[in-house]
Amino acid sequence: MPDSVKPSERRSSARTSLVWTALEQVLAGAGDVLDIGGGTGGFAVRVAELGHRVTVVDPSPDALAALDRRARELGVAVTGEQGDLSTLLDVSGPASADVVLCHGVLEVVDDPAAALTTLRQVLRPGGTLSLLVAQRYASVVARAMAGHFAQALAMLDDPAAGSGRAGHRFTEEEVRALLVGAGFEIGTVHGVRVFADLVPGSLLDLEPGATAALVELERAVAERTEFRPLATQLHVLAR
Ligand SMILES: C[S@@+](CC[C@H](N)C(=O)[O-])C[C@H]1O[C@@H](n2cnc3c(N)ncnc32)[C@H](O)[C@@H]1O
Fold it and tell me: Is 194 in the pocket of ligand 1 (CB under 6 A)?
């Protein structure tokens, strides 16, 4: 990564690079992509740049306005619709998407099982769900490293403890059970951000080549089950 890249972009690249690699394979040949809770379009706009028809459904008007600005700045079309998981079938209709992105949203919905059942209905037969969720054990480690030991202890077995606005945290077992319960067949499961959130940002800013080396390390551990519980997020592809 060249030195001219901003520090925030370096960290963001270290955090999302793996997800993109998996997504690019899934997106090949896909027409309609739905990004539920797509927010300001960090993923959606880039997917649109690849030539797909992208719709973002999100409850936040502010996020949708920011999405619109971002898409216009880059000269791509992304449809923004106000709505949420509970109204998704009315907004998008059943069997309307080849790929559904649900990134960082399952954590904040009241009923994750119902949410996944809805996503299954929105997908066309043979379509793929890209699910990115926060993992509980990584949160325990993060809390402990920040000195919040009581919070870390409370979170060990309780998905909602100490989660505040960030929402629930899931274990891999819980995510798998939710997906299977909603009728999905689980494909690949990757651990994302095993180290990226633990290394000081200054290290990436000051050390030439550090971001690329970190991304390579993240790639090497993403599929190794012994590291997976330490990943900040799980990225699951399911059909
Ligand atoms: C952590 S952000 C993730 C944004 C984006 N998906 C990403 O990965 O960068 C969570 C998003 O979910 C949206 N959201 C909150 N509750 C929702 C719900 N019930 N259904 C759908 N989206 C929801 C929020 O407005 C916000 O844009």
Answer: no
Contact call for residues 32 and 55 (beta carbons, < 8 A): yes
Of 57, 101, 108, the residue with max ligand 1 atoms within 8 A of its CB, to mutate for a pocket test, comes to: 108
CATH class of 7-135+170-238: alpha beta
For the segment 38-83, what is each residue's pLDDT rounded down to a tens digit?
999 999 999 999 999 999 999 999 999 999 999 999 999 999 999 9
Could you state, in order of their start, the residue ranges of all structural domains in the chain?
7-135+170-238
d(CA 91, CA 81): 8
Pocket flag, ligand 1, residue 37 (CB < 6 Å): yes
> How far apart, in whole angstroms, are the C-alpha atoms of residue 220 and residue 169?
24
113-133 pLDDT, tens digit per residue, is: 999 999 999 999 999 999 999
Strands in 97-103's sheet, in edge-to-edge order, are 78-82, 53-58, 32-36, 97-103, 123-134, 233-238, 186-192
At 79, the amino acid letter reads T
